[in-house]
Amino acid sequence: MAEISSSRSLWERLPQPLRSNSGVLTTFVLLALLPFVIALFEGKPPSAVWANQAGTSKFVQGLAIEIFILAVYAISYDLIFGITGLLSFGHAMFFGASAYLTGVMLKSFGWNLWTTLGLVIVLGGVNALLFAIVLPRVKGITFALVTLGMAAVFHIVVQSRELGAYTGSDVGLQGVIVPDFISPASQRLRFYFVALLLMYLVYLLYRRFVSSPTGRVCIAIRENEGRALMLGYNTFYFKLAALTISSITAALAGFLHTLYQPIVTPNVAGLGYTISALLIVLIGGVGTLNGALIGAAVFRLLDFGLRRYLGESASFVSGVVYVAIVLFVPYGIVGTWYLKRLQIRQGWTRLVERFRHSSEA
Amino acid sequence: MEEPAIILETLNLRKEFGALVAVADVSIRFQAKTLHSIIGPNGAGKTTYFNLLSGNLEPTSGKVLFKGRDITHQPVHRTIHMGIGRSFQITNIFPNLSVLENVRLACQALGRDNFRFLRTASSFRRYEERAWDVIEKVGLKTRALTPARNLPHGDQRKLELGMILAPDPEVLLLDEPTAGMASEQVPELIALIQEIQRGGNKTVLLVEHNMNVVMSVSDRITVMHQGQVLAEGAPAEIAANEQVQTAYLGGLYQLSPQKGQ
Fold it and tell me: Which of B115, B82, B90 is nearest to A237 (CA)?
């Protein structure tokens, strides 16, 4: 009894955002334990994981790191697309610009990791402002096309021969020197925790943002911007706030991407990378935030699995799967769950009961 | 009774859409703390006139003065901050948000906490409390947590009224608040508007088609016709005006005998 009460008081001493997101906290802890659990399945002691020995665990960590980075990138898209209702086709620029900046600063200029990180955050803000310049003038699909144009320009610039010495033109930036203490090769477990922590913190921050006065207005803008204006909100500033937070988040994802790979190809700045974010958000559920995280996992694992077993034809099959998802699960995984959770639970109970009856008989 | 102050006035306000002159040099002075109705046949320019007052449209020429201050070119999101609230002929709400959230957003807009994105909105209790008060006033307390799209039309009109009452504006522009309402619900809403106007000492500008309502609640009436002011005066004067009778009332509306002359 004494133990329970002390553990409860410990629970109560946790900061409120942690307590109100207990499911998220549980997931975080489970994900933190994942590398060790996998090692146990393989018959290796946790100390081997700690020492970053090669094996299934290290491989899974790598895959998970990619998912975490992708999830952070996708959730940043959900904030402007799913929450604020801004359709942008230039989101890859937020990610790609930072990925390139990190690579160039570390490789060509020999900058320290922390100054680079600072610059990446500044770049995130600048990119958001760039998109915001056109915000008051264009709406809806026009905004999507203008942002598409901006990102296309960036995509061309990084591939240009004039910048080849820094960006590696169309081959991409190779051989980025990553400091030893965060090296994905020798310190993968540490990298895993950094990426997991970033995803966790970003998710908590986004949850809070969406329920804050600012986020509520962003949702109102998505629902009916004209009415939000009439209520007295200068909607531009709210869209700018969402864009800035989204852009900085995507920039952080790009930063980690470069450190992890450590190669930057022009792909990360292309339209395809924006479409990935859009697809992930659609798979997970638009405007649900956690849908972006789940969607990222589904997207990456599907891609990984298909490529492994189908090879070249994988992208054809994955295309069919995405079309099927958009057609048959239009609200995405999380969105459908929110809508149908009662029916799903009832169906499940019925299924279990039927199984019980048949096993009794 | 001394001459009341003019709270809102327009000077030669004009709006052209291409060759169409929707509002042609309209000058009206609205006295503070009165209920002033604007009537006229469809296409007379009433809603356009409202859009010019609230900043939804930019006038081609002319001026809008609020308490003597020129507000002609104020952006639409400033209007409510100055104390002018406006409702729409076509219900204009956030359909997927709850009734409470619709009204709460209206309350929050006037505060200074819009960019405090690290605290939850529900921790700012004053907006939520104010929203509950307003919801109770317009009689939607039992539906507060319903998504607005699930409300019957009449309740949506009440919600819309609640959303412009929430920030407690001095002037309310009501564009056909009873539009599309079941006729038995109309008196209830009109009584509510009267109570708000008298009890809250507010100025109400009302566009309304129901002549019985207009004649019984208005302090003054302006008749618009083809973008121009045809007549202005107390209800009895308007009902007696021959020009109005022929151009408007006689053609489209029949005044009930006890109210008409």
Answer: B115
